[in-house]
Specification:
This protein is of the alpha+beta class and about 325 residues long. It has 2 domains: about 200 residues, Orthogonal Bundle (Triger factor/SurA peptide-binding fold); about 100 residues, Roll (Chitinase A, domain 3), CATH 3.10.50. The strands form 3 sheets. Strands 5-4-7-6 form a 4-stranded antiparallel beta sheet. The chain has a 3-stranded antiparallel beta sheet with strand order 2-1-9. The chain has a two-stranded antiparallel sheet with strand order 3-8. The chain is elongated and about 85 Å long.
């Protein structure tokens, strides 16, 4: 299983070959962005990672210089973190077997419609089959190192999850819901006569329903809202999903009662609450599995970040190019 957190935290470093990134700018092919224990991090690799972080088409425009510098430093720091983990993995004797690289390479190639399309894609990025293979080998090495140092050392027990559940009761409350039906009589706010006609129609519909007419049938024939297809049924809704005026009226209604028309910018709304579901607290058993997984993910993220920080304090890291402010980078020893 590939490591979730290797991908999440080092996303800028594990270049996904399924998406074509921009080639490096002319003149930057051999420039160094940083050194990690003497190993260079190239500007071309930082810019390739950066192209995956910026919005489409905005590599050289549409993003302020301040934001671009921040993105650039984030990408550089991701590559530094990757290199720290690669070095730690090798020092720990972690090996990547040729069969593993071959299998991963097969997955990468399968994302392209033909061998020729794959060849053109890697050439457009300035890559060769050998350099792609090397990247894949590093990616697998990072995953294995993170699995050994992080994933295999984090376990969240049911008891720990229960303690979290009991100490954070508000996180597991389900808000009050109402089962709501709705009719909309739309009007054009720019035309006074249209507003008056819509209001008259809404008043008439509300009166007919209160005298016994079927709400769902009138919704299907008269409502201007897409919910007409379901007889005006909006299902269960909670606060925050409706327009303020509609929400206030809906949560004030008793089940079975039909509202007077409620006006909004869209027109006049007629509401009927069919049932109320009071605020409840989800049981521990109903969320136990997801809670254990979520707490485990958070614990793995914290452990990974702490491990990278520890590796960086023991390393000599030096940023040298493209406005990567070394004082903002990972903590380091050695030359600034």
């Amino acid at each position: 299983m590939r490591s979730l957190w290797a991908g999440a935290v080092l996303a800028s470093a594990l270049f996904p070959l399924g998406a074509l990134a921009a080639p490096p700018e002319q003149g930057k092919e051999n420039k160094v962005a940083a050194y990690v224990n003497g190993v260079p991090i190239m500007v071309r690799d930082v810019e390739e990672a950066l192209s995956g972080k910026l919005p489409g088409g905005s590599m050289h425009g549409g993003v302020s210089s301040e934001k671009k510098q921040k993105y650039w430093l984030d990408a550089a720091k991701g590559l530094v973190a990757q290199e720290l983990i690669v070095q730690a993995g090798r020092a720990a004797g972690i090996k990547v077997e040729p069969a593993e690289v071959t299998a991963r390479l097969k997955q990468v190639r399968s994302r392209y419609p033909s061998p020729e399309a794959y060849k053109q894609a890697i050439q457009a990025r300035g890559l060769t089959p050998a350099s792609v293979q090397k990247r894949i080998e590093r990616e697998i090495l990072v995953e294995k190192a993170v699995r050994r140092e992080v994933d295999e050392k984090v376990r969240v027990s049911e008891e720990e999850a229960r303690r979290f559940y009991e100490r954070n009761p508000d996180r597991f409350n389900e808000p009050e819901n109402v089962r709501l039906r709705h009719i909309l009589v739309r009007r054009d706010p720019a035309i006074k006569e249209g507003r008056d006609a819509a209001r008259r129609k809404a008043l008439d519909l509300a009166a007919r329903i209160k005298k016994g007419a079927d709400f769902a049938a009138l919704a299907r024939s008269e409502s201007d809202d897409p919910s007409r297809e379901q007889g005006g049924d909006l299902g269960l809704v909670h606060k925050g999903r409706l327009m303020p005026a509609v929400e206030e009226a809906a949560f004030r209604l008793k089940p079975g009662v039909v509202s007077d028309p409620v006006e909004t910018i869209y027109g006049f709304h007629i509401l009927k609450v069919e049932a109320r579901v009071p605020e409840t607290r989800r049981s521990f058993d109903s969320i136990k599995g997801k809670l254990i997984r979520d707490l485990g993910d958070l614990a793995r993220q914290d452990r990974l970040q702490a491990w990278i920080e520890t590796l960086s304090t023991r390393a000599t890291i030096r940023y040298v190019d493209q406005g990567a402010d070394s004082s903002s980078g990972p903590r380091r020893s050695g030359s600034p």
